[in-house]
Amino acid sequence: MAEVKVVEKIMGANEQIAAQNRRLLDERGIVTVNLMASPGAGKTSLIMRTIEALRDRLRIGAIEGDTASRVDADRVATAGVPVVQINTGGGCHLDAPMVRYALDRLPLDEIDLLLIENVGNLVCPAGFALGEHVRVLIASVPEGDDKPYKYPGMFSSVDAVVINKTDLLPYLEFDVPAFRQLIAGLNPEARIFEVSCTTGEGVGVWAEWLARMCS
Amino acid sequence: MAEVKVVEKIMGANEQIAAQNRRLLDERGIVTVNLMASPGAGKTSLIMRTIEALRDRLRIGAIEGDTASRVDADRVATAGVPVVQINTGGGCHLDAPMVRYALDRLPLDEIDLLLIENVGNLVCPAGFALGEHVRVLIASVPEGDDKPYKYPGMFSSVDAVVINKTDLLPYLEFDVPAFRQLIAGLNPEARIFEVSCTTGEGVGVWAEWLARMCS
Prior knowledge:
The structure is a homodimer of 215-residue chains.
Chain A: H1 13-28, E1 31-37, H2 43-54, E2 60-66, H3 71-77, E3 83-87, H4 96-103, E4 113-117, E5 134-140, H5 147-150, H6 152-157, E6 160-164, H7 176-186, E7 191-194, H8 203-213
Parallel strand pairs in A: 1-4, 1-5, 2-3, 2-4, 5-6, 6-7
């Protein structure tokens, strides 16, 4: 009888550490969101609005990722929540070891909802699990309604898409129904929210969705 | 006497092929521009406006890079210029071999100015030479005026920054002088242009700068 070799899937280093992060977060009961988007789509603004909407009901923490600088963490810190800045040193995405490092520096016993802002990039972050429970893409109206064609990997990998900067719709050619249809074609399960972090419109519906996951 | 080992810099595969591309382009007298930007900053729109502005004086060709789809190439083709679409298959930047492949498919004897649209990404494309003569970053106003802090690698690596979507300035908090100063701090040699591809404002100055390089 011929020898049978069993080859098991060996998890890569990032996936292993992501799984450890996930276990740690589960143990502490911290719902964790990986926020991904192009540069300038409004990741930090959505974090600020979410804190504002939920701070009376949930204890929120944040991890800010950027290739350089601490401007986002400084901004989030003004809301009085614990925040750690990760600088990737030019790297194009966060990875699970970076998040692990940040988790070790956060007061996990005092956090119900952890918002992770990834590096601004519609390509690379899609491929790296961090240990999060929910993956969210923020797509801003000025970027145009053709982005799902060009970044299908990102659009098909997320649990929700937040269409941001809807206050600019009057000044731009952006077809919201067509955009929703494109997303649905790639990712029928994805929840879609429409918000303006400038006016606050639509933030409530998004925040309720997050809050329900924490209850 | 101790042995002295001389270690020469060995060019990586990408740099070698970029140098070959550059020689080929120099031989044909084709000025080549690598256009980099976030998703939706207006790379294709700037290419369309540049063709419109210069088509009577220069023969233009284009290479369109995206992770997926051919929508940009189809759009550029409507202007009647030769264009090749490169799909990176999820890859986050163009590289020199991809451009070499595209060059082999373009009528190089009929091109004076070659516009290469890189994958929408403010991180990875900065690290990969394509053989281009000029590196340009398009920064759109809705992305916010803090981007040089967060993507210093990109802002410091380019010959010019095109500030696009200036028609949206009345609706946004974007401090143009502060943004120019940030760029100048990182990259004092960079030329800075202000344009609106929607209204056409400022496109002439940008196009003249390109045209002078081709003469």
